[in-house]
From TrEMBL:
UniProt protein name: Positive regulator of sigma(E), RseC/MucC
Entry-linked InterPro entries: RseC (IPR026268), SigmaE_reg_RseC_MucC (IPR007359)
Keywords: Membrane, Transmembrane, Transmembrane helix
Pfam families per record: RseC_MucC
Organism: Tepidibacter thalassicus DSM 15285
Membrane-crossing segments per the record: 71-92, 104-123
Length: 144
């Protein structure tokens, strides 16, 4: 997936870009794009083209990696929530826990989900180092 943006800040081999949200974002609405908010977002990208502040650049975001990142960020925690609820429900019934099983299962499920988010947060620096999930500035279109 290729996008264009403007470099607004630069440090070492990374650059902060202001880009317009992709048209596919409009159908999601999660970020409030349709509610009159600015259509610009700020991202951090690997500056392989040695762009400077104010340069108009081309950014390459590998679509399969975007999908993998979305799975890591959204699907894994949801999966852990469901696993926590289902497994704890079975275990609580097996040990004859006679209080509110549904509430306890929900609490344990949310605990599993939080644990998934913590694990993702711990591994985030390793994922960033791999550069697999980071947008890359591939070309400077217009220099300031």
């Amino acid at each position: 997936m290729r996008q264009t943006g403007v470099v607004v800040d630069k440090n070492e081999n990374m650059a902060i870009l202001k880009i317009q949200r992709h048209s596919a974002c409009a159908s999601c609405g999660a970020c409030g794009m349709g509610s009159g908010e600015s259509k610009d977002i700020t991202i951090e990208a690997l500056n392989k083209a040695d762009a400077n502040i104010g340069d108009f650049v081309e950014v390459d975001i590998n679509a399969p990696n975007v999908l993998k990142a979305a799975i890591i960020a959204y699907v894994i925690p949801l999966f852990m929530l469901l696993v926590g609820i289902i497994v704890s429900d079975k275990i609580l019934k097996f040990i004859n826990y006679n209080k509110n099983i549904e509430t306890m299962s929900a609490i344990i499920g949310f605990g599993f989900m939080v644990m998934a988010f913590v694990i993702i947060k711990v591994y985030e620096p390793r994922l960033k180092k791999s550069e697999e999930y980071i947008p890359i500035i591939t070309n400077v279109i217009n220099q300031k």
